[in-house]
Automatic annotation (TrEMBL), chain A:
Protein name: Acyl-CoA dehydrogenase
SUPFAM superfamilies: Acyl-CoA dehydrogenase C-terminal domain-like, Acyl-CoA dehydrogenase NM domain-like
Family that this chain belongs to: Belongs to the acyl-CoA dehydrogenase family.
Domain Acyl-CoA dehydrogenase/oxidase N-terminal residues, every copy: 30-113
Keyword match Flavoprotein: yes
InterPro entries (UniProt xref): Acyl-CoA_Oxase/DH_mid-dom, Acyl-CoA_Oxase/DH_mid-dom_sf, AcylCo_DH-like_C, AcylCo_DH/oxidase_C, AcylCoA_DH/ox_N, AcylCoA_DH/ox_N_sf, AcylCoA_DH/oxidase_NM_dom_sf, Mycobact_Acyl-CoA_DH
Domain Acyl-CoA oxidase/dehydrogenase middle: 129-223
Keyword Flavoprotein tagged: yes
UniProt xrefs under PANTHER family: ACYL-COA DEHYDROGENASE, ACYL-COA DEHYDROGENASE FADE34
Transmembrane stretches, start-end: none
Signal peptide positions on this chain: none
Residue ranges annotated for the Acyl-CoA dehydrogenase/oxidase C-terminal domain, each copy included: 235-387
Lineage: Bacteria, Pseudomonadati, Pseudomonadota, Alphaproteobacteria, Sphingomonadales
Source organism of the structure: Sphingomonas psychrolutea
Automatic annotation (TrEMBL), chain B:
Pfam families: Acyl-CoA_dh_1 (PF00441), Acyl-CoA_dh_N (PF02771)
SUPFAM superfamilies: Acyl-CoA dehydrogenase C-terminal domain-like (SSF47203), Acyl-CoA dehydrogenase NM domain-like (SSF56645)
Originating organism: Sphingomonas psychrolutea
All copies of domain Acyl-CoA dehydrogenase/oxidase N-terminal, residue ranges: 6-119
Claim: Iron is one of the keywords in the record: no
Annotated Acyl-CoA dehydrogenase/oxidase C-terminal domain residues: 217-347
Keyword terms: FAD, Flavoprotein, Oxidoreductase
CDD domains: ACAD
Name of the molecule in the record: Acyl-CoA dehydrogenase
Length: 408, 375
């Protein structure tokens, strides 16, 4: 048990901290309205930063050099990520590709043309999106209805995807489609990667309750994908899904952003009837409860790291981190509004405290409890895979996909 | 960075679990529950002493094994899991830590070797009534080296032969070392919610007492002793909470209702998943506490408060939801569930309720933010 850096790690941390300070992007050149994710100028700064890191050997540090990585250790990579977050220069544009999709691509594909897509993604020149969920396939993530039918040296895809983060700006996507509807549902799926500019593919942004539009619907109509772009063998799609989701939960569970320091800051500046809210015993009790949960999320990410450094994959316990992070974000943002009384309702960035960061996050929190696996699915995973409790009664497991009841 | 026990520590922990499975099955706790006169199981205590566990973190120069605090945390986790009905917490986490923190060379040399071997059982005697330990609350006083007052409750007050007592001295509240078997001391067992961890009313009437640490600094010293104890107790809480979850899981797999194991219903699965998450929060904070304790890190006061808040919450939830999962059998005397329900409350209150520790935690956070802003 050691939460200190080893001497080598400490030295590495000093080096990367200095390097980030010297080379990191300057976000102050952006106007406030340009500092939002997916704004063209914001995205360009992120791209340049990713390329700068790749040139210096700080992008995908633990990946092999022939794939654009630096051949370093998982610990080095984690230290760099921590320092990047500390300096406030971490961007989400490349995470879907680098944290979720390309690891399974490298694991399941041996096709050189496919693997050639990895290095440009590491440099930030190409952005990836995930095309898994469907209108009828959310928590039931193997209920995919998008069909892929073989036609010569291509597969032809038809169907609809939804909740595709960043699809409107992505160059490539990883898609799950059904290649055999006559076998039970988990067995008839296959994974493909495709060019988002392929004819027949249409992206439509979804306006969320937060007002943001970074999630999309993607429609596929006779989209032809070269056969070599299948990831893994025919019928391996579910393995790719699982690998991706495990990586996603491990990444989400270590999420950063507004935290206990920020809510203390607001409490300090919000009068209560007797002093500031920071002095209010009810607030302090809440703060303590929040802190132990938030601290657990931080510390559990070290456990994931310990597992990685011992060559083990992140396990289902990452689900606990994801569940905590999503619920605690809602708890935190709600409290941040509460302690401001009516003023907490104001979300105008020019008037609200912390430029309305808590208000914006508050309107995102419900989505955090759904995306990447809902609270309920996380609890099922913990109960079944960690505690070993039986699966629910299933009416869809041993029957061919086309015979499964679908309701309305 | 390593979020785990080392291989040697794991081996020690496995060894401890095997030993306790044989030496401290739940029938031992039941024995004390049903015959609570002694307040602990003397035979088990003797065997623990032979194992050398009492001296795990006591330096070799004072007769201990000098293994370190992470090793002691590993043992605490297993003792908590086994629900061992012995005065280990009072004597090792609190009394020995008080001596190590505040004792003179003479006090340490005289007492620590006896504590390390298990021959001497020590405890803390601080509480006098309901509520927090404030200066106004403490009436016990020492005049001319003689202690008078009533301490209630004193954990392991019947089993212990020495106590560190919080009392008013000429310089204000201080800690004093008293011989519980000496003149001027009378004591009687008091009935509590957890008879497997005995408590007593200890009355001092002109009992000889010597200062421990700087006179007048009793509350500050006590806070530091409690912080160290809080981390070790958090491991007992974690071990107990883990066992509750395992027992609930096992029962949910065995028990059928409506033709299915009750563990296949989401009402049970989601409840136990929530318990799992609470236990993980307790584990993360306890591990961080173990690191702070073993390195004497500046973060120790914050880490201790967090470990205690999380440990109390986890054990409470795991013990009550285990009973709920068991259903009717869970609320009978015959089932073992209530042992854990009792122990969860004992551990959650013995060094102050979670509310008090949340207050401390918020104080430490405020200090930390101020330090960060000054830097």
């Amino acid at each position: 048990m050691n939460f200190d850096d080893s001497p080598t790690e400490a030295e590495y941390r000093v080096t990367v901290r200095a390097w980030i300070e010297a080379n990191g992007p300057d976000l102050s050149v952006l106007a406030p309205e340009e500092r939002r994710a997916w704004h063209a100028k914001h995205k360009e700064i992120a791209r340049v930063w990713q390329a700068t890191k790749a040139d210096a050997g700080y992008a995908c540090i633990s990946w092999p050099k022939e794939r654009g990585g630096a051949g370093g250790t998982a610990i080095d990579e984690a230290i760099f990520n921590q320092e990047e977050a500390r300096a406030g220069v971490q961007f989400t544009y490349f995470m879907t590709g680098l944290h979720m999709l390309l690891p399974p691509l490298m694991e399941f594909s041996s096709d050189e043309a496919s693997l050639a897509r990895v290095a440009p993604a590491v440099r930030g020149d190409e952005i990836w999106c995930q095309l898994f969920s469907e209108p009828s396939s959310g928590s039931d993530s193997a209920a995919t209805r998008t069909m892929a039918v073989r036609d010569g040296d291509h597969w032809v895809l038809n169907g609809q995807k939804v909740w595709n983060s960043g699809a409107h700006a992505a160059d490539y996507g990883m898609v799950i489609a059904r290649t055999d509807p006559d076998v039970p549902k988990h067995k008839g799926l296959s994974a493909f990667w495709l060019d988002m500019k392929t004819p027949g593919l249409e992206v439509r942004p979804i306006k969320m309750m937060s007002g943001d539009s970074e999630l999309n619907e993607v429609f596929l109509e006779n989209v032809r994908v070269p056969a070599n772009q299948m990831v893994g063998a025919t019928g391996d799609g579910w393995k790719v899904v699982i690998s991706t989701l495990m990586n996603e939960r491990a990444a989400l569970g270590s999420g950063t952003g507004l935290g206990w320091r920020d809510v203390m800051d607001i409490a300090r500046n919000s009068p209560a009837f007797d002093g500031s809210t920071l002095d209010d015993p009810a607030f302090r009790e809440w703060l303590a409860d929040y802190y132990v949960n938030a601290e657990a999320i931080r510390l559990l990410s070290f456990r994931t790291l310990t597992a990685l450094s011992h060559g083990k994959a992140p396990g289902p316990e990452g689900s606990a981190g994801k569940l905590l992070w999503a619920t605690q974000t809602q708890e935190l943002t709600n409290q941040a509004l509460d302690i401001q009384d009516a003023f907490g309702l104001i979300d105008d960035p020019d008037i609200a405290l912390l430029n309305g960061g808590f208000q914006h996050r508050f309107m995102w929190a419900p989505a955090l409890r759904l995306g990447g696996g809902t609270d309920e699915i996380m609890k099922n995973i913990i109960a079944e895979r960690v505690l070993g409790l039986p699966g629910d009664v299933r009416v869809d497991k041993a029957v061919p996909f086309r015979e499964i009841p679908t309701g309305r | 960075m390593n979020f785990d026990y080392t291989d040697d520590q794991k081996a020690l922990k496995d060894e401890a679990r095997r030993f306790l499975l044989a030496a401290s099955p739940l029938s031992v706790a039941r024995g004390v529950l049903e015959h609570p006169a002694a307040g602990y199981d003397a035979a088990l205590w003797a065997r623990i002493g032979e194992q050398g566990w009492c001296g795990a973190a006591i330096p070799e120069s004072y007769g201990g094994l000098g293994l370190g605090y992470v090793e002691l945390c590993a043992l605490a986790e297993e003792l908590g899991r086994a629900l061992a009905p012995i005065p280990f917490a009072s004597s090792i986490y609190l009394f020995a830590e008080a001596l190590l923190l505040a004792g003179s060379e003479a006090q340490k040399s005289a007492l620590l070797p006896l504590v390390a071997s298990g021959e001497l059982i020590g405890t803390l005697a601080v509480s006098e009534g309901p509520g927090a330990l404030t200066t106004e609350r403490i009436a016990a006083q020492v005049t001319g080296g003689l202690l008078s007052g009533v301490k209630l409750p004193v954990a392991d007050g019947m089993a212990a032969s020495k106590a560190v007592v919080l009392a008013q001295g000429e310089a204000g509240l201080g800690l004093y070392l008293a011989d519980l078997r000496g003149p001027g001391v009378t004591r009687e067992a008091v009935s509590t919610l957890d008879p497997t961890r005995g408590m007593a009313r200890v009355s001092f009437d002109g009992a000889p007492a010597e200062p421990l640490g700087t006179p007048g600094e009793g509350l500050a010293l006590l806070a530091r002793i409690h912080e160290r104890g809080a981390i070790l107790l958090a491991f007992e809480q974690l071990g107990g909470a883990d066992r509750c979850l395992e027992m609930a899981r096992d029962y949910a797999l065995e028990r059928y209702a409506f033709g299915r194991p009750i563990g296949s219903y989401q009402a049970i699965k989601h409840k136990l998943a929530d318990v799992f998450v609470k236990n993980e929060v307790a584990r993360a904070n306890a591990y961080y506490g173990a690191w702070a304790l073993s390195t004497d890190a500046p973060e120790l006061p914050l880490a201790a408060a967090a470990a205690r808040v999380a440990g109390c919450a986890a054990y409470w939830m795991a013990s009550k939801e285990m009973i709920q999962t068991y259903g009717g059998i869970g609320v009978t005397w015959e089932a073992d569930c209530h042992f854990f329900f009792r122990r969860a409350r004992h551990l959650g209150l013995v060094i102050g309720a979670p509310r008090d520790w949340k207050r401390r935690l918020a104080d430490r956070l405020e200090e930390r933010v101020e330090a960060e802003q000054a830097a």
